[in-house]
Records
---
Amino acid sequence: MPQLRLPQVQGISGRDLYKTSVLRGELQETTSLAAMGPVPQWDQVDELRLWIAPHPCGAMPVLLTPSAHDFALLVRALAHRAEPVPLADGVHAQAISGLIHWGLIERYGRQSRAQLIVLHEAPYGSVAAEQVPGHWDHQAWLKASSNLRLEHELTHLATKRLLGEMRRNLLDELIADCMGMVAALGQFSADLFGRCLGVGNPSGRWIAYTSELNATAAKEAMALTMARSAELEAELTISPELSGPELQIQLLRWLCRQKLDQPISPFPASLH
């Protein structure tokens, strides 16, 4: 993947170096790469982990790094065509599709493209372990956070397959966080969801989903979201079997039928 060797400088995606190395797959000498700018310097390349994550709606390759620096390099190289775009501090995951991968192209043809989820190992939602329901130490919460973050991203991809679109709204964040918490923690917590969403924090994650609303509408949307999350926690507490892996896809289908402006409907007995 020549993207990982390119200098991350402004405008590189429009230069001949990018076209020959990435679009045509021609190997470039290190000297020619360095002439365009400093080549990426990786912090913890030996700590990268790559595996295939299973999911009922389709398995996905996952690349995880414990380094925030390396995560930023990976996302810029693979999702932003090596452009040095700024990444928000709270971003620790990136699902990438349409990825040019010359190993696949050489085997399956020029129309082949790869998909990948890139993860940074960090506490989910910047929430400390002592704020998580139950008794979690830092390392256990760090591991659980990676599992939660991965299931969150897999859920977004799954909802796209189930609904035909990948929606970017508060309801889908609730759905993805619910599936993530159930997978990683065995339960859903409305309080933890609010903390991870950054409710009450003027720079919290919720801002990304209400930025086009005025202050009154944004407050109403958040109130609806937290009301639905409380109802969801109650429903899953009453029926703990819904959190089992054998009902994963049924739980997701049920969640996708919910509406932000309507109370959570009971889980249909026919789906048990």
---
Amino acid sequence: MNTPEEIKKVVQEKYGEIAKQSKQQNESSCCGATSDCCSSVDYTIFSENYEKLEGYNPDADLGLGCGIPTQFAGIKKGNHVLDLGSGAGNDCFVARAIVRETGKVTGLDFTDAMLVKANKNKERLGFTNVEFVKGDIEDMPLPDNSFDVVVSNCVLNLVTDKHKAFSEIMRVLNPNGHFCVSDVVIKGDLPETLRKDAEMYAGCVSGAIKLNEYLEIINKQGFQNCTVHKQKEISIPEDVLGKYLSKDEIERFKNSEIGIFSITVSANKPS
């Protein structure tokens, strides 16, 4: 799994399987009754509790996020919001509760099974101002200057070319628009066995880059007022680490300054 195309294929296949499950099934880390991809990876390990948020729909929550980007996104009534890697629609439906009937929410995802699940959820809820579009975050099939706010939840870390992803966010945002994303980053150098394993990649760890590099990419694309609103260290259970590291490596890992963090960061597009 070396080329960007191979990485994308792995992510699509993994999340296509996850789309067939509930949050509770994802916690058991088995991708379907007939699949052989059961593992010790818990895909809900980063997730936050959405249950008290207006617009929350349990059927759309697969536990795949690592924050609540709408919490810091400054979304207003009437805004047009884009959710990158929208999955089953969880953040889209929360955003829709904020923009109300006069706004609009667009979800972008490149996994067919996720789009099917999201559209079923939308139809059941009866929303006419929410749409789900198939597309690649690195090359969005969306017009320039068309969104007030872009959000994303634990997805950009899986994108192979993050410079291109943030360039595309800049392109589709309206002047004075802004983004707010929750994502996974690292501090220090993760052991190679964690970084290279395809299951951990789809589980949001190995695709992560260093925090300072992540913020530098944002600034290099020309965004302003970059702000980290929330930062939380992720504790990986020892039984999960045991699949990838020896006992000595686990001990060194736990006693080092190396860490895996979820962050929620925003920045503005200049006028």
---
Amino acid sequence: MATTTATAKETKTILLVDDEQTLIEALNYNLSKEGYRVICAMDGMQALDLARANNPDLIILDLMLPRLDGLEVCRTLRKEMTTPILILSAKDTEVDTVLGLELGADDYMVKPFRLRELLARVKAQLRRYEMPRTSAEPPHDRAPFGRIVVDRDSRKVFRDENEVVLTLKEYDLLDYMLTNVGKVMPRDVLLAKVWGYDYAGDSRTVDVHIRWLREKVEEDPANPQHIKTVRGIGYRLES
């Protein structure tokens, strides 16, 4: 059964999905103490129903769930909404991590985890979508490169006037690179600026999101003309 806990300071809604009752209770308590409204689901089908009904600001999702596994939940939700998804799983292989990110997750944490780190990542995910534009951004609101136009006012991307649907993290990554066109962006810089925290040296999430972004904005993702790889360092956006 879904449970909801809220405090007087609540500002954001978090959907917490896990089939471990003890973990659900502990995270529900600690997230609520931080001022979040927490909605809990203990299986994949319930998670989809609650996500659609509540439009949460963040989803914390376990992979090993009854009725519908977490990867399928992630795949389905990413097709329907751009809500940031933080995967929380006991599966710790590189294949599991990359697969989760490729299906649309914005972050991936392995159990067991430190509560302080989880809370920091939650805040970082939510903060990314509240930050105002910095003065480093170009003064115009429609930033074109090639056949792609980024409309910063609406946070939408178009190719030949047809909208290209990006996840929130994909948009943030592209938008940050647009503010630094022609500059080499090391992976650790992208992690700090786009994800908002130290990612403990794991650059796979950057590579996965870059690959995903290329598939959406490049005419030939296998031979990218705009998002270039700088071997051993990171990436560069060319106009």
---
Amino acid sequence: MRRDVSARLELRADGPAQLAVAVAVAAGYRPQRETFDVVQDGRPLVWKVVPDLHGTRLHVVDVSQGPVEVEYSATVDELESVAAVGEDEVDVLRYVRPSRYCESDVLLPTAVAEFGGLHGVQLLSAVSSWVGVKVSYIPGSSAPTDGAVRTLLSRSGVCRDYAHLVVALLRALDVPARVVSVYAPGWQPMDFHAVAEAQVDGRWRVVDATTLAPRASLVRIATGRDAADTAFLSTRGAPVQLVDLEVVAVADTLPGDDPDDLVSIH
């Protein structure tokens, strides 16, 4: 499957700052073409790639006061290898622990009451369906600091909130689970997307309770404990404002998606 992805960020820095931009496809893909540019005051800036967990590639660049434009594009097919996304025994420990936005310890009684006794694909399907029914997708209904507990209480959110709740419920049942930011062909309105991944029989499988984009078309960007590890922009120094964001992701073939199927990101 061929997928063309791109992102354009218009930013404004209030002073000298360092940007860490996570919009590039993860290591492990072999792009047919790929470009990344940062421009300020009409001149290109020099950036460096800093590797993070599971093949995440952070583009780090220093900027001065004023407007900044970041542009990225790539054309990708499949992953070069599954091992390229990273998988080891530490993941089993890291991704069953509670984290900033996935309070699995608090949600343990809920997880046991709703899903106790389920395992494997049945558990993933049940959690995905339950979150999809309990939570309404309402843009602007959640704050950047909301975690899984807040999402369950408010019964509303966006993709990252769905992913956090799914991850927290699975971790509460000792299933390693993590959050992945992705390009999502078929997603409307187009934006960066966030999904959950759960480890089943030694493989990472996608769980997307929003069901708004086919899982087989997703392209991995960043992977981690929660949104704290997968944000598309992190900054140091002076405040940096996001003025505009444009994301595009299209596939030459948009596959169907049965929620009961086990699907991995390729």
